[in-house]
Amino acid sequence: MEDSGLSSPQALLANVFTLGVRDLPRQRDFYRAIGFPQVVDDADFAVFALHGAVLALFPASKLAADGRGDEELGRGGIRFTIGIVVRQASEVDRLADRFRAAGGRVTKEPTDAEFFPGRSAYVTDTEDNFFEVVWAEPDNAIVAAAYRAARLTPPAQP
Q1: Fewer CB atoms near the end CB (10 Å): N or C, the chain?
Q2: Are the C-beta atoms of residues 40 and 142 closer than 8 Å to each other?
Q3: Residue 74: pLDDT band by 50, 70, 90 thresholds?
Q4: Could you tell me whether strands 118-124 and 130-136 are parallel, antiparallel, or unpaired per DSSP bridges?
Q5: 115 DSSP assignment
Q6: E strands within the chain?
């Protein structure tokens, strides 16, 4: 098999699930009430650590705009993504290319992330299930939670 330049598949973390929500305060209160430990609490974003995974809540309109662009909002936008955390910024680009080569779509080309310091891209499989490919510094609360959930050590800072 040709070297793709990516970490081994076992090193790619696909344990960050983002729900596009209509009423963030209500949903945040709901997940708090059922006892999920919260690791991020921002005005437009809430993240909870689960055993083995991370659940993120993001306003549906912002998730749709971030992943597809405004032209898609009229079609309902994105309501759910699986976040794939990669170990290096350059892996965002390489994994997006692999999705495209395998028949998926890149709906947001790899770019500097808008909502956090890092790099991200949005890709889909052949049935338009969305993934956000993400690289961020290991001290990013979500990335740190994803590594803890997977019982892995984050990579050293560059």
Answers
A1: N
A2: yes
A3: very low
A4: antiparallel
A5: S
A6: 13-21, 38-42, 45-50, 53-59, 80-85, 105-112, 118-124, 130-136
Average pLDDT score over residue span 139-148? 89
Domain positions in the chain: 9-149
Reference 67, options 54, 82, 55; nearest CA is: 82
**Hey, how many other C-beta atoms are within 10 angstroms of the C-beta on 109?**
11
Q: pLDDT averaged over the chain?
A: 84
**Dmax (CA) of the chain:** 48
Looking at domain 9-149, which CATH architecture does it have? Roll (3.10)
Helices (H), the chain: 24-33, 60-68, 89-101, 141-149
Supply φ then ψ for residue 34, to 5 degrees: -85, 0
Under a CB-based contact definition with an 8 Å cutoff, are residues 6 and 98 in contact? yes
